[in-house]
Amino acid sequence: MSLAAPNEVVTKALLRQVAVPGLDRPAALITLDNGFDHTKPNTFGPAGLTSLDEAITAALAAEPAFIAVTGKPYIFCVGADITSLPALENREQALEIGRLGHRVFARLKDSAVPTFAFVNGAAMGGGLELALHCHYRTLSAGAAALALPEVSLGLIPGWGGTQLLPNLIGIPAATQVIIQNPLMQNKMLKPKQAAEMGIADVLLEPADFLERSLEWAAGVVRGEVAVTRPEVDKDMWAGVLYFARQTLDQRLHGAVPSAYKALDLLETAKDADFATGTAAEDDALADLVFSEELRSGLYAFDLVQRRAKRPAGAPDKGLARPVTKVGIVGAGLMASQLALLFARRLQVPVVMTDLDQSRVDKGVGYVHTQIEKAVSKGRMDKGTAAKLYGLVSGSVDKSVFADADFVIEAVFEDLGVKKQVWAELEKIVKPEAVLATNTSSLSITEMAADLEHPERVVGFHFFNPVAVLPLLEIVRGERTDDATLATAFAVGKQLKKSSVLVKDAPAFVVNRLLTRFLGTVFAAVDQGTPLDVANSALDPLGLPMRPLALLQLVGPAVAYHVGGTLHEAFPDRFGVSENLKRIADSGQPIVVDDQINDEVAKLLVVGDEPLTAEQVRQNALDALAQEIRLMLDEGVVAEAQDIDLCMILGAGWPFHLGGVTPYLDRTGTSERVTGKRFLPRGVASLR
């Protein structure tokens, strides 16, 4: 049986002998390199694993002082070539992929010659598992990404990670890396954190990383450097996994099979021998390879890694104007978050304005406090902090915007207020300055209608918290020109956000869908459905939070306001809930310690036609399918893929759903509600 992956970009294992001072024999250094720069990371397909296998054989034949594996500049290895997985035809082929990786990597683990991983850059998935098989590990402080992200894709670490990691760093930390982090928007480990966990034996600076790694390895071989690792506490193993399973049940309700498979494998790792544990990994991998969740996960991964970097419909970047100063209208919490983000990423002066000095001082003070916190936690050096202090300023006089190239407003969500702001600013700013609005639902076209130069107004919609959520909806008004739009996309890229081009339509993408979704759930409450039933109805989807927790995060007042905007635009589909208004007016939290607030429940006036949880869930899914089809027909975004990208990056919807449209397709909701699928068969599904 051939395991050759179609169109595999082969990562070659290049062997060379290196003379190391203090050793009487050369070291064997294996460098992983696929022949491309760091923008196309090393991955392992069958041919790459075969190349590594051959390099290990040649290295051992030379009888070196030690064997070390490292990567090309900035990249160690980011794991298996997952693009080849959909080409697998049967379970036996999936088993063979797992077994091949295990067999090759195990040669480093079982070697009589000392083996080292010099983790010089990004190490994810199978790349990190390769490093775990080596006897010792050095780690560059400049490594950009360290993780075992497989669970987020619908897989498990399938080349020894579930067996080696817990027995190296303990079950609590291993559970965090293998299950918790992937389910938290694929949270990465920082090099310092990985070293503190014990994943690496020593942390070295990137400037002379290879030289210092060779020197350190020589010290280990000579017996001059002692590597000690704390004994793993196995008494707490069962308790940690019991708690982890409870947490998964509460959060995912069985919706992510890979997370539960990973838990089972971590349980196996406590007492099973390595061969038994890795055989269990092979079986788990083979089961998951032919799951719908994996196909959705791979689709979502491709959106985030590729489509997000090449936004559909974005104009020629050569049209973008330089931005040397940023103005922010407002100094509230959102404006202050924006000021910090712009200063950190663009490294240009940022000035905030507000109605009075106390508000300005509070906004600037917030920025300074966040900088101080970053320094105290070791996330920012004092030199950078000093520079940022100098870049961010405030004023009550809008004339400070006269030389700004990019001005963004973050004032009250009222069309009249925003139009007044732009009318004042147009008299101050230079003709080519971009005027951006952070509105979450209002019309960009209407906002710019009375201006002399409406072509320079663009929607620039962030998601809260600004520093965390990567989505930026860039909204083109009817008269927004290409230069303005190109500048907006260039700024979005500098801010390290994933930008999606959106048509000027009420509430754009994420807020429109979430409002329709929440509106359907709350309509069920208005009918008489108990709050706890409506709140738990969507649990089988494994969403990041339940509807009422999401409503509390958004804010009932904001949700009611956005709902009102959409009701005016689409009264037949977006209702106005008086119960939601009562909650907003009360100012009380809907959820307290994950429990529904009884005081809020007492405020509700409901009907006598309660729905079952299944009815609530199906109504919500039907509403989403209908709204997405209408949005695509209206041209709000280019394709269904952009809807999914927005929901993943702006609302945190999980990879195992593929955002939203793959789930609607595979449950038959799309065809039943709209008459057709959103995606062709096989794009994000098995068939």
Q: Keyphrases for this structure?
A:
687 residues; alpha/beta; eight-stranded mixed sheet; 28 helices; NAD; oxidoreductase
What's this model, at a glance?
It is built from 28 helices and 19 strands.
Characterization of this structure:
- Strands 12-11-10-13-14-15-16-17 form an eight-stranded mixed β-sheet, sandwiched between helices.
- The chain starts with 11 loop residues before the first strand and ends in a 13-residue tail after the last helix.
- 50% of the residues are buried.
- The protein is built from 28 helices and 19 strands.
- A hairpin with an 8-residue loop joins strand 1 and strand 2 (27-33).
- The radius of gyration is 27 Å and the shape is globular.
- It has 687 residues and is α/β, with parallel strands linked by helices.
The radius of gyration over CA amounts to 27 Å
Shape: globular
Strand content: 5-15%
Supply the helix-strand structural class: alpha/beta
* DSSP strand tally: 19
Instruction: Determine the N-to-C terminus distance.
Output: 24 Å
Main sheet record: 8 strands, mixed
List the helices and strands and how they pair.
Elements (H helix, E strand, L loop, with lengths): L11 E7 L8 E7 L12 H16 L5 E5 L3 E3 L13 H19 L5 E5 L2 E3 L1 H8 L2 E5 L5 E2 L2 H4 L7 H9 L1 H10 L10 H7 L4 E3 L4 H14 L14 H16 L4 H12 L5 H16 L2 H14 L20 E4 L3 H14 L3 E4 L3 H20 L5 H10 E4 L10 E4 L5 H12 L7 E4 L6 H5 L8 E5 L9 E6 L5 H13 L3 E6 L6 H18 L3 H6 L10 H8 L1 H14 L8 H9 L4 E2 L2 E2 L1 H4 L11 H22 L5 H12 L9 H6 L2 H6 L13
Parallel strand pairs: 2-3, 3-5, 4-6, 5-7, 6-8, 7-9, 10-11, 10-13, 11-12, 13-14, 14-15, 16-17
Antiparallel strand pairs: 1-2, 15-16, 18-19
Helix pairs in contact: 1-2, 2-3, 2-11, 5-6, 6-10, 9-10, 10-11, 13-14, 14-15, 19-22, 19-25, 21-22, 22-23
